[in-house]
Amino acid sequence: MHPIVAAALFIFCGEKVAFDRDLLPQFTPNQMQNCTAATRDGFTRWAATAHGRALIRRLDGRVVITEDLGEGGAGRAPEPSIATMAALGNSTRVYTLILNPNFVIPKGMAVMPGQPVTPADMMAAAWAGEMLHIDFYSRGISLPHHPRPDFQEEWSAVAAEIGFPNLRHDDDDEGGYRRRAIIRIIGTH
Amino acid sequence: MPKESAAPLRGRLELEVDPNPIVAMPLGDNWYELNFDIIMREAGGVDVRIEDFTVDALAFKAVPVHSQTFPATFITDRGYPSSIRAGKYLRFKFTRRWPLPSELLLTGAAARVTARTVDANGVRGETSVRVGVAVGR
Lengths: 189, 137
Hints:
- The complex is a heterodimer.
- Chain A is of the alpha/beta class.
- Chain A has one domain.
- The longest helix of chain A has 20 residues, at 119-138.
- Helices cover 38% and strands 13% of the residues of chain A.
- Chain A starts with 8 loop residues before the first strand and ends in a 10-residue tail after the last helix.
- Chain B is mainly beta.
- Chain B has a single domain (13-135), classed as Immunoglobulin-like, CATH 2.60.40.1470.
- Chain B has helices at 73-76, 102-106, and strands spanning 13-18, 22-28, 31-42, 48-59, 63-71, 83-84, 89-99, 110-119, 124-135.
- In chain B, strands 1, 2, 3, 4, 5, 6, 7, 8 and 9 form a 9-stranded mixed sheet that branches.
- Chain B is elongated and about 65 Å long.
- The chains are: A alpha/beta, B mainly beta.
């Protein structure tokens, strides 16, 4: 029997994710049935990277993953109140990860080299990028992260590991985008 | 005790796009006209010269599916200088007709403008801005 080496607790489809001895996620029948294959594949691909393994082993707290096909991008990790989390201690830290596996390359359009092509590719990139934000939150570092050289260095390393060395994660709108209220129009007459 | 030294000033460009989000006007058959202003503002305190700039169409706000790089002559051919004095700004119109499938526009289409510069001291820089794309009527 091997020791439990995962520190982070991932809640996916309402259930805790178990990890094998290589720290790869082992999904339950409910997670296989009710959560999107692209999100699961992306999780597995990110978890297989050096950064993913290290973060799963080290991150104290709970990561609650939600799939939302209405998201405007592939994913986001809203900034928690870092001061409140610090006061609560490690065991009650909760991070939210919202992913949209509905990625599709429009017909007739070609993706540039080194960029995601499939929904699973996009989810691997979203897991890598958003978990990097959560990593920084866990270290007490508030947004903005994108202008930080250490964030870009780590992003470049993990992006190359998942196979997208040319994918950027540096846009300057992270603060406004992450904090703005979302209004959805659900009907008109 | 280490001596203090003054950090050298560097030319630094800030980019803006107006309107934000960009409005894509439908022309039919998935073709759209994008018409917006690019504003390049020097904010570092040293003159900069624009070498070139790239406009990317992004799917899902992240993945480039169309990219076009324009030399500085794109700006000078329109009667504007390609150099920006310290603290000043340059604003010019950008109009292009691009095919943009509706799937792209419905799933978080965005545009990214990236400008590459050299400042008066020969220091190179790169700045980008990403804006959403909305469909006009």
